[in-house]
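User: Show me a protein chain along with its predicted structure.
Assistant: Here is one chain, sequence first, then structure tokens.
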Amino acid sequence: MQTGCRWVFVFDTLNSEIKLRHYSPKTLKAYRGWTRHFQTFTKAKDYRELTQQDGADFLRYLAVEKQVSASSQHQAFNALLFLYQHVLKKDFGEIKGVVRAKRRPYIPVVLSREEIELIFDHLCEPVDLIAKLLYGCGLRLFECLNLRVHCFNFDAGILTVHSGKGEKDRTVPIPQVIVPELKLQLRKVTAIHEADLQAKYAGTFLPDQLERKYKNATKEFVWQWFFPAQSLTLLREQQEYKRYHIHESVVQKAIKRAANDAKITKRASAHSFRHSFASHLLQANYDIRTIQELLGHKDLRTTMIYTHTVPSKTIKQAKSPLDF
């Protein structure tokens, strides 16, 4: 067996296959990480000689010797499955005899409406508005930060979430109570955009295929981030500046700090607002399938997690809990 083989082909192909399927950057980062661990575990064995047993031994090593969590074991298994099927073009098959921890039943952290309002009160602009969208529309954090100007249809009262988890689009009602704040934020985006144009900056970031197809779209107003970052990003190769959206860590840290300042005793995070959105709709007797659509869940069983303590009845018309 050869050791010390270069895996450049493996990582280049992994990158291409994931982008081909429009998986998220987080998935790419996770799968690359597990592939790197697998390379180290096999002592950089020639990837053309990898067998199913190598994968089984790696998973057993993670479970028994490293004692990684059940969720990490599950993610590592998915990464290896993708590696074998789409990069190595080998059958991963059913791995028998591998010890894998079972996932514990997950109970999401749900905040009360009073706790949510307390956190809102301890947040500054624009994170307070971001938090209101997370709760008022049931958005994931990356979905909220990826919103662009064209996503908001104020006339129809509809927010379109593009490229959500699994690259699915969906629409949710805009909470009417925060429309004035949203329009104020839109005016701020307009001012930032006009200043960027005057400074001859290169506009915003777009997905590669869109930027190739629409050459001037990076500078068009409708494509600007709804929550733009304060500072610009320098692209060294092109020697030009572009504006990205607010970074996730900025929002996460602000929400954690606000929860501490508000003396919230629960493990509140950005995702807690989405959990609370679903739970509060159930408490208001909304139909579970309506909530499934609003959350963008592919499988109803994922939405059913919120029914563990809340009896549900049926209301079909969608409405934001911020408007209750």
